[in-house]
Amino acid sequence: MANRTSLLLYQLSRRRRSPPLTSFFYYVPTCFVLFTSSLFIVLYITKTSNVVFFAHHQQQPSTFYLEEQQQQPPLPFEPLNLSFKANPPPFHREQEIPVVGFTESRHLEENSNSSGGGNVGIQHLGSHGINVNNEVFHDRDMFLEDYKQMNRSLKIYVYPHRPDDPFANVFLPVDFVPGGNYASESYFKKVLMQSHFITKDPTSADLFFLPFSIARMRHDPRIGVNLIQDFVRDYIFNISHKYPYWNRTGGADHFYVACHSVGRSAMQKSEEMKFNAIQVVCSSSYFLSGYISHKDASLPQIWPRQGDPPDLSSSKREKLAFFAGSVNSPVRERLLQVWGNDSEIRAHSGRLTTPYDVELLGSKFCLHVKGFEVNTARIADSLYYGCIPVIIANHYDLPFADILNWRSFSVVVATLDIPLLKKVLQGFGSEQYLALKNKVLEVRKHFQWHVPPVEYDAFYMVMYELWLRRSSLRVIATVKQ
Ligand SMILES: *[C@@H]1O[C@H](CO)[C@@H](O)[C@H](O)[C@H]1NC(C)=O
Ligand SMILES: *[C@@H]1O[C@H](CO)[C@@H](O)[C@H](O)[C@H]1NC(C)=O
Ligand SMILES: *[C@@H]1O[C@H](CO)[C@@H](O)[C@H](O)[C@H]1NC(C)=O
Ligand SMILES: *[C@@H]1O[C@H](CO)[C@@H](O)[C@H](O)[C@H]1NC(C)=O
Ligand SMILES: *[C@@H]1O[C@H](CO)[C@@H](O)[C@H](O)[C@H]1NC(C)=O
Ligand SMILES: *[C@@H]1O[C@H](CO)[C@@H](O)[C@H](O)[C@H]1NC(C)=O
């Protein structure tokens, strides 16, 4: 438990006490994540270019980085002082920076001990940045211990709404079994309201849930996509006048949950919401300015399926990889252009003639390729059908990435490397493939919803992410009811 102190330090450093852009503690970790991510990508490219595997890059690797970063704010190198990071805590973000498989990581491990000095960022990555752990969790013991504590003590207050509220449809949980692409949003609220995390006493709450549903607002003719922003702004106005809790922290201990990407622009007219509140969203991209990876959390997009698929163990996976979907992004265009006619990588545009589950059960790897957004339900689909997810979606802040070691059960491939896809996938020997596959079976349970919830399922994992983001140092002395 020697890491306890550093974990605590890290958690303290993540607390948000004042409006973010003026807060040192808020700002530094943000910069740090941006900074180290960028360094890592550079480092990764530099390193891999020496590996035989990657000897055939057609393009200049750096162009990928520059193109993709344009919308990011400039990195403020000046105020960075990384010395307090010298001993990284177990849930450190660096562990989640996309890496292809196991093969290259060996080359990155060589740089072991180094510390201090002006190059802290780079050297630090060399020594600690790569997680050699092949387990599903970054640190199982730490997670289980924290989870228990979370399960015991986390309390959520939900702003109350009566069934006769004209917008009860937006605020109350759905009374049907959620389904489809955006089911995660409805599942979360439905399960939360029945869980032991709920408290009726706001003074004992760690976090406050804003129960509006983006999905239901979209379909409500009184609101619709065009008026969601106004509705959210009005809602914040209402609760911040009626209750003292929002003003206390400017919304920093409040959260909402949304799966449809409309949720992002929904906060456009509520700056405090966007900058302070915890946004638990499916479209969690480091690239988008509205999403702040360590403040916000990634909600897995899950098309709910009940029970186990029938022939998971007996399935013969003869195809190397599979993708099907509409070609609605340059990344998918590229995939189809390179692999559209391949016999081992089945990349299919539009409607399939074979059943989807047959394809997922018949392939070793299943491709999750960025479309309009970084997220789709394909990762959860792959896991459900025992297929190893291959993530081709630059800047996707993967769900539960601060808990789960994605490298143990998935392969992350940079968009630029689409032409190398077959080499990358064939590079996994049968032993490595089986190791990944076993981990896929192990993590499946974290990507499933249940009513009522089942220990360690998607609901509990989201609760744990919230727990990591709670603000336990709130100062409330001057607030009177
Ligand atoms: C960085 O912070 C450490 C500890 O707070 C301090 O000792 C050190 O002087 C700082 N370095 C710079 C360059 O400000
Ligand atoms: C890394 O540092 C530790 C403690 O300072 C030391 O025991 C170990 O030998 C060092 N390893 C290398 C490869 O330098
Ligand atoms: C979580 O809390 C529930 C309700 O108190 C309890 O039934 C369950 O055993 C707890 N799980 C763990 C892992 O502590
Ligand atoms: C805000 O409160 C007003 C007055 O009670 C109400 O008419 C309106 O519907 C509320 N708006 C939202 C978004 O809750
Ligand atoms: C919260 O702050 C707003 C704006 O400063 C103010 O109008 C409102 O009255 C405050 N709410 C409460 C409950 O004091
Ligand atoms: C695939 O093959 C068809 C028929 O030979 C051809 O028309 C098409 O251009 C090919 N597509 C790609 C991406 O190579």
UniProtKB/TrEMBL annotation:
Q: Which InterPro entries match?
A: Exostosin, Exostosin_GT47
TM stretches of this protein: 24-45
What are the GO MF terms of this UniProt record? glycosyltransferase activity
Keyword annotations: Glycosyltransferase, Golgi apparatus, Membrane, Signal-anchor, Transferase, Transmembrane, Transmembrane helix
What topology does the record note for this protein and the membrane? Single-pass type II membrane protein
What GO cellular component is one of the record's annotations?
A: Golgi membrane
Lineage top rank: taxon: Eukaryota
Q: Where is the Exostosin GT47 domain?
A: 151-426
Q: Which cell locations does it reside in?
A: Golgi apparatus membrane
Which Pfam family is an annotated match for this chain, by its short name?
Exostosin_GT47
Q: Which family does it belong to?
A: Belongs to the glycosyltransferase 47 family.
Q: What is this protein called?
A: Exostosin GT47 domain-containing protein
State the taxonomy lineage: Eukaryota, Viridiplantae, Streptophyta, Embryophyta, Tracheophyta
